[in-house]
Amino acid sequence: MNGNDTWKQFELIMSSKNIAPADAKQNFLEIPARNGDLDLSEALMGIPFYGNREITITLGGKKARAEWTRTLSNVQNKYHNRKVQVIFEDDPSYYWEGRLTVNDDFDLGNEVGTFSVTVNAQPYKMETRDGGEGTCQAWDTFVFATDIFRNYHGLQVSGTLTVNVYGNQMPVIPEFEVSAAQNLTVKYQEKTYQLQNGTNKFYDIVTGPGDNLFMFSGTGVVTIHYRGGSL
Fold first, then answer.
1. In a domain, 59, yes or no
2. What pLDDT does residue 190 have?
3. Is the dihedral of CA 76, 77, 81, 82 positive or negative?
4. Range of 46's domain?
5. Residue 15 region by backbone torsions, left for phi larger than 0, else alpha for psi between -120 and 50, else beta
6. How far apart, in whole angstroms, are the C-alpha atoms of residue 79 and residue 85?
7. Partners of residue 201 on adjacent β-strands
8. pLDDT tens digits for 63-92?
9. Interval 141-165 mean pLDDT
10. 6 φ, ψ to 5°?
């Protein structure tokens, strides 16, 4: 949690977790003299939207009763009702973000105790790396079968340059960090945008899953900040 290992921090291990499906935001309109309801769930942008999801994590360990009192207090002081980022060992390339609650379900047997925490989490888990961070890829946690290698840092543009940002499932508005710009533009889906030195963000550039081709023209140095998300 928040970059901390629960064993190193509290000598607690995760015995189970449950990640509930994200709540689908649905909008149906009942119309007289029509069979079935009119589905407007994707009418605004042509894509589905989701509400938060609940993640329940059971933690446990072996401690004396007095130690448990201190541990539970320390966990609550650190995380209860606070915003957290959670990375699971079996999915190290992504983090979940939400607000954590320590539940009132502590159970102590023969010095072995368990309790649970619940995270009211965003629907998408986020890639731990921003594509604009550079080449420092954490290969020890990279999953070649599923992860996407991204390196959009310090792209040199002199004339034209086409960059394919391969999108994950979550719609993302990327940011373009620019320096030394001279008549520098980017074209995306047949529309051209002027880039200025500094941070550029265009709210009608929304990347989707799969190939997203950006064609740069002019002169300058561009870093594309893109962080994908997946259900």
1. yes
2. 92
3. negative
4. 6-123
5. alpha
6. 11
7. 175
8. 888 888 899 999 999 999 999 999 999 999
9. 83
10. -65, -25
CB atoms within 10 A of CB 216: 24
- In this prediction, residue 223 carries a pLDDT of 96
The pLDDT tens digits for 200-230 are 999 999 999 999 999 999 999 999 999 999 9
Check which CATH number belongs to the domain holding 45 and give it: 2.40.30.200
Q: Are residues 72 and 118 in the same domain?
A: yes
Cβ atoms 131, 177 nearer than 8 A:
no
Q: Which residue has the higher pLDDT, 10 or 41?
A: 10
35 CB contacts (<8 Å, ≥6 apart)?
none
Q: How far apart are CA 229 and CA 231, in angstroms?
A: 7
Amino acid 39 reads D
Structure tokens at 151: 């390196």
Q: Tell me the whole-structure pTM to 2 decimals.
A: 0.85
Q: Average pLDDT over the chain, rounded to whole? A: 90
Token pair 């001279």 is found at: 182
- Contact (Cβ atoms closer than 8 angstroms) between residue 102 and residue 75: yes
